[in-house]
Each structure stands twice: as C-alpha cells, then as structure tokens.
Amino acid sequence: MTEVVDADELLRRMQRSRARAVEELVASRARAEALRSQDPGAAGEARTRGLVYEVVIGVLDEILTPGRRPAHDGKP
Asked: Which residue has the higher pLDDT, 52 or 67?
C-alpha cells in the first residue's frame, strides 16, 4: 500500500533523516577513534561508514537548503 504524504510531511521526514545521519556520523567517528589502536580494520570500517553519512548529510543539505553549501570542485 502506498502512503500519500504532503510536502510538509516530506520536509519533516527529510529533516529527521538528516538529524539521524548527523547522530550516526558522530557515533562512527567516536567508534573509529576508540578502535584506532585496538582494531585498525574495524576502525577503517567505522571511518568508511562515517564518510557515507557525510555524503548523505551533504545530499540532504542540498535538498533542504539549495545553494547553501559551497560547490564541490571535484577534488578530494
């Protein structure tokens, strides 16, 4: 069954998603730091997960506030 939502509800859902992604980014960074010396492999996985959340936050930022963030020039 498909649920129909209005624009305000869609905006609220995206804002909640962004807030959750920020929480997960903070947790991933903390986990990577905690595991850095004990388990480098798991620390690397946590850093990768953090990068994914950074991308998600960037995409949601562009949707929620277009043009607010500086354009990416293609350089890492």
From this structure: 52
pLDDT at residue 76 in the model: 47
Q: Are 9 and 45 in contact (CB under 8 A)?
A: no
Alpha-carbon distance of 54 to 13, in angstroms, equals 18
Sign of CA dihedral 65, 59, 17, 2: positive
Angstrom CA distances, 44 to 23, 32, 41, 61, stand at 19, 7, 5, 26
Q: What mean pLDDT is predicted for residues 30-53? A: 96
Segments making up each domain of the chain, as ranges:
19-64
- Distance between terminal CA atoms of the chain? 42
User: What is the residue whose two structure tokens read 């960074």?
Assistant: 29
